[in-house]
Design brief:
29% helix, alpha/beta
């Protein structure tokens, strides 16, 4: 069965921009993020987050740190994100 999907950026779209977010305690959802995601889900959309995380490639934080942030986003959004996809590479890596 086909379902519509929306692909959203993470930083600056769902959460406040923090340069190289590496700690769960620095995570801040925008005030209307939860309502917006619920509206999308209520209209039958899969909600997929795509994000560049070059801080991993730069050695600023680990992939596990990023997964902990995604887990916290899921907690704060009542597990409404269907999938997270990320690129850990540097901007010049040709991805």
């Amino acid at each position: 069965m086909k379902r519509p999907a929306i692909f959203l950026d993470r930083d600056g779209t769902l959460i406040e921009e923090v340069n190289f977010l590496s700690r769960v305690e620095d995570l801040r959802l925008f005030p209307l993020t939860a309502d917006a995601v619920k509206l999308l889900k209520g209209n039958g959309y899969l909600v997929i987050v795509v994000t560049n995380q070059s801080g991993i490639g730069r050695g600023i934080y680990t992939e596990n740190d990023m997964h902990a942030i995604h887990a916290q986003i899921q907690i704060e959004l009542d597990n409404t994100i269907d999938a997270f996809y990320f690129c850990p590479h540097l901007p010049d890596d040709g991805c």
